[in-house]
Amino acid sequence: MSDLSNTLAVATLGFPRIGPRRELKTALEAFWAGRMDEAALLATAADLRFANWLRQRQNGATVIPSNDFSLYDHVLDTAVMLGAVPPGFDWGEGPVPLSTYFALARGDKDRPALEMTKWFDTNYHYMVPELGPRQDFRLADDKPLREFIEARDAGIHTRPVLLGPVSFLLLAKMRDGGDPLALLHRVVPVYVELLQRLKAAGADWVQIDEPALVLDLDPAVLAAFGKAYPVLAQAAPGLRLLLAGYFGGYGDNLDLVLRLPVAGLHFDLLRGGHEINEVMRRQPTGKLYQLGVIDGRNVWRADLAALLDRLEPVVARLGRDRVILAPSCSLLHVPVDLALETGLDPDLRRWLAFATQKIGELAILARGLGQGRGAVRAEVASAADALEARRISARIHDPKVARRLARVTAADARRAHGFETRRDAQKKRLNLPDFPTTTIGSFPQTAEVRQARAAHARGELSAADYDTFLKAATAEAIRWQEEIGIDVPVHGEFERNDMVQYFGEQLAGFAFTRTGWVQSYGSRCVRPPVIYGDVSRPRPMTVEWARYAQSLTEKPMKGMLTGPVTMLQWSFVRDDLPRADVCRQIALALRDEVDDLEAAGIAIIQIDEPAIREGLPLRRRERADYLAWAVECFRLASSGVRDETQIHTHMCYSEFNDIIQSIAAMDADVISIETARSKMELLAAFADWRYPNEIGPGVYDIHAPRCPDVAEMTDLLKTAATRLEPGQIWVNPDCGLKTRKWDEVRPALANMVEAARRLRRAM
């Protein structure tokens, strides 16, 4: 790993699992639908793993990870590995069956899935392990060992990756509300056993990911690291551990990190770059340093010349044999291979690098640092030319956008009157019953919808015929909502491909790839837009569909938009402008759309912001600034309307306690949130803070195939009514219904409407 004479080692912390053409998604969904058996699914997974290892080696990686692959989620994999399967999932001894694994991930007709939330400040979702106070841990699944041996037998020596025990416990949920770190003494022996088995199989290094090390940690957590790692470091003599924190610098945890008895340390130099200076000053004896110098979370080509300038003195001080080059974090968060983007605009394509290309960039840096700049002169010059072309491109900057942004005042981000005044005006206009029912926006994107969209994109279905198809689907959805008694219908969003992509395709400054998929969770993949230039709205985006939908019903139709922070967070954002300024540009573009929807007669406008909590900086000292501009951007988009126009927002799979004041400061008239999986636990933050506006707590977990009955939903609403005022409560699912099937959605929403009726009768 470090005995190289003429170049530096190149490592990856993890590689995208889904395959260059989403082969994993295809296989998983075929398996779940019964079209593929377990053996075929596992064979597909093995093929993807081998292809990933080979791709990384061919592009210059010399330290290749194993156990970074997952059929659904690596945190779930760790829970299953440790035997942390909650009661009720039909498992007691032996390996955890695949059926149980997927029941934990997705639920089934009898059991809800584990909770799901965001992986630190990314758009990746992980399954929250559920632990008991007397949790019994054991090595129930030796997946890390199996995959190391699988690679070994294929002729590829890998560095196994494990989610570390302290971060695992901190990410978990205790059923009794206790401290998960109290279980550390039970979980560490399982890691010791696994490390010993890996050493016996031929592993020489193991990467242990402890991303919690970049958080603000209290003394008890720091003590947990101090207890666990001396034990792990001695688990298997001769096996060396590389400790990896990422998504930030170690900050005030750096002293602890440098003292831990591990053989190597990973540093995220994209977000904690100054810390390498302290390392050079102190140079802890005998450690190896893995430097995360290529951005593992964005798609822009690296400035190789600047990186060589930065790294040359570091390598000279630490020594070539003590430095490994790496991405800042796992490449899970970027697409697989830019080479597949044959139709992308040539200028933009020249500015980008996906996972495969990022490994190539690392290999160039390794050669340049090991053999001298002359060895990579052409590659460095090519990167410099691309960066300069991007910098001077007329496509990047729009003077009109800059002038408009400069004219924004504080008054532009305030509604004309407070919530109490607005509520009275809205009640008079909308005339809704208590516990009004609605949905979050989207309805199932059936095979027919997807086929029609694809046929239209290929030119096989005319624009007029496609429009006719979409109008028929919309009319049917509205008719059905009226039949079951939905109080505030939605048009179903059949014309939309994705809640970010649909808007980005109509905004200036956005570009889209064809194969730039990344995993969100399980088989759910997203294709983030690339924000490359100044953002504006050339023309209305949703007004005609909203106007058409409203013409089909006397009930108030809800217009649906994706909010500015979510548009930002779920895109690959330009790196030549502060994120706050990009977000303000998006907010002004959406403000135009909100104003036009109101002018078209739409009385309720929902501006979804599921990513606002996701964007919260991991360190507390950085949060106030982010929350200030994030709230400002939402209000900038939403505040141009009259009192009687009701503004909704939606948030899902977020912990709200630490941002509840900022959520209130957004001043949405109604917020809908995910609460079904947590059985209304997330309402505690709103109740404790006495949230003043109206709330729609989700009563239907849309990420599981099960259909909750009327009694279950009624009980959830009764729980909500003990924490909120009855006049505050709306009734809705947890999230949009795009990924569900109609035969699941119809009975679930009918049950939801009946639950609201029962609650009205009971109150």
Structure characterization notes:
It contains 27 helices and 22 strands. With 763 residues, it is an alpha/beta fold. Among the domains are: 9-86 and 126-392, Alpha-Beta Barrel (TIM Barrel); 401-418 and 496-660, TIM Barrel (Alpha-Beta Barrel), CATH 3.20.20.210. The protein has an eight-stranded parallel β-sheet with strand order 1-12-11-10-9-8-6-2. Strand 10, helix 10 (275-282) and strand 11 form a beta-alpha-beta unit. Helix 23 packs parallel to helix 24 (660-666). It is globular. It starts with 8 loop residues before the first strand and ends with a helix. The mean pLDDT is 94. Keywords: Amino-acid biosynthesis, Metal-binding, Methionine biosynthesis, Methyltransferase, Repeat, Transferase, Zinc. 5-methyltetrahydropteroyltri-L-glutamate binds at residues 22-25, 118, 123, 524-525, 570, 614. L-methionine binds at residues 440-442, 493, 608.
Q: What's the alpha carbon Rg, rounded to whole Å? A: 26 Å
Compute the separation of the termini in Å.
68 Å
- At CATH's second level, what is the architecture of one domain? Alpha-Beta Barrel
How much is the average pLDDT? 94
User: Which strand order does the major sheet show?
Assistant: 1-12-11-10-9-8-6-2
Largest sheet: 8 strands, parallel
Count, helices:
27
Secondary structure: number of strands: 22
Write the layout of secondary structure elements.
Blueprint: E1 9-10, H1 23-32, H2 38-58, E2 64-66, H3 74-81, H4 98-106, E3 116-118, E4 125-127, E5 130-131, H5 143-153, E6 158-163, H6 165-171, E7 173-174, H7 184-201, E8 205-209, H8 219-233, E9 240-244, H9 254-259, E10 264-268, H10 275-282, E11 288-294, H11 304-318, E12 323-327, H12 346-350, H13 355-371, H14 377-392, H15 399-406, H16 419-430, H17 447-457, H18 463-484, H19 501-504, E13 508-511, E14 518-521, E15 524-526, E16 530-536, H20 543-550, E17 558-562, H21 564-569, E18 572-573, H22 579-599, E19 604-608, H23 623-638, E20 646-651, H24 660-666, E21 670-673, H25 683-688, E22 694-697, H26 710-723, H27 742-762
Parallel strand pairs: 1-12, 2-6, 5-7, 6-8, 8-9, 9-10, 10-11, 11-12, 16-18, 17-19, 19-20, 20-21, 21-22
Antiparallel strand pairs: 3-4, 13-16, 14-15
